[in-house]
Design a protein that fits this description.
335 residues; seven-stranded mixed sheet; mainly beta; disordered N terminus
Length: 335
């Protein structure tokens, strides 16, 4: 479920100042054909489009939409926002996506639709600017206060419609193809089966440092997304560590294992802003040797994570093999 207490978001539009930011009156076409949404697709860790539907109003996704002025006028290059964080939700009665403030197509105009999931009603407290230039895009600010587990999934989609095109059919719903904007990072920690097969080991704490916990997502009118990290921080992830549980053993190539690993990010990992470099994993653990009596040796070792493969929509799996010195095995399984 979506927990808005974990972060704050602000959706905005990027533009150079215009002389007038008044919203253009959105006059409907003569047949008053309403704008509808449909053909929603997702290529992301969300299991299916059904997961996006939720429980109706208040769930689903949010939409910001703009259209340009009349052709042949100076306003043709200026886009005015006519949908501001509109909640598009699933209506079981009509078996369709719907929204409350019905808008209508205007003939001979270009439309830009930016959609995001999950919908956040509180974004209405910070209204976007109401006009944008032709080459401007939509943006999304995401501020983390804690790491995000995989039950939070930031998706965005973009669509353009030209009602002046001869092929335009006002009855066709606007298709939204959602893509995942964060990277799914997973970690398993094992004890070295070659050096510590008969010893005991337990992880006591795990921390990540130098990861972006705040960033701005920009999506151009071409539908291209990019992240700009705004702040870095160290995030302690002790919530996923059972300090009293001994971890399983594995060979360094993971061709053999026994027992269960420690999964400090949980079974489904973390969702993080993909723009990162020089990320450090700090692991604290205790080692009890078979012939060590009651003594538990304590270690805290830093590991530099390879982040070259961090890209939006990808799942990254790390496996860490611990001994009295640390060894890293890195595996990438793709999207």
């Amino acid at each position: 479920s979506f927990n808005s207490s974990l972060f704050s978001i602000l959706m905005c539009l990027f533009l150079e100042p215009l002389d007038s930011c008044e919203k253009e009156s959105h006059e409907p076409a003569s047949d008053k054909t309403p704008i509808k949404f449909g053909k929603v697709e997702t290529r992301t860790p969300v299991n299916s489009v059904d997961d996006m539907k939720g429980d109706g109003k208040g769930d689903g996704f949010g939409v910001l939409a703009s259209m340009n002025g009349a052709a042949g006028t100076s306003a043709a290059a200026v886009y005015s926002l006519f949908m501001e964080n509109e909640n598009v939700y699933w209506d079981d009665t009509y078996d369709a996506w719907t929204y409350d403030n019905t808008q209508y197509w205007t003939k001979g105009r270009n439309y830009h639709f930016f959609a995001y999931y999950p919908y956040e009603a509180e974004m209405n407290d910070a209204k976007p600017i109401s006009a944008v230039e032709m080459n401007a895009g939509f943006g999304y600010d995401l501020t983390f206060t804690t790491p995000q587990t995989a039950d939070f999934d930031l998706l965005t989609g973009f669509a353009t419609v030209d009602t002046g095109d001869a092929a335009f059919n006002g009855g066709t719903p606007v298709p939204i193809d959602f893509g995942h904007e964060m990277v799914n990072v997973n970690l398993e920690i094992w004890r070295d089966a070659e050096k510590h097969q008969n010893d005991n080991m337990r992880v006591t704490d795990v921390a990540l440092s130098n990861i972006p916990w705040k960033g701005k997502l920009t999506k151009t009118v071409d539908g291209v997304s990019s992240w700009t990290p705004l702040a870095m921080n160290q995030l302690f992830l002790g919530t996923g560590v059972d300090q009293n549980k001994e971890i399983g053993a594995a060979r360094k190539d993971l061709t053999w294992s026994s027992g269960d690993p420690c999964k400090p990010f949980g079974d489904d990992g973390l969702l993080l802003i993909p723009e990162a470099n020089a990320v450090t994993l700090l692991v604290s653990y205790e080692l009890h040797r078979q012939d060590g009596g009651d003594i538990w040796e304590e270690y805290t070792l830093p590991v530099t994570l390879p982040v070259d493969a961090w890209e939006a929509g990808k799942r990254i799996n790390y496996s860490l093999i611990l001994s009295n010195q640390v060894n890293m095995s890195f595996y990438y399984l793709g999207t």
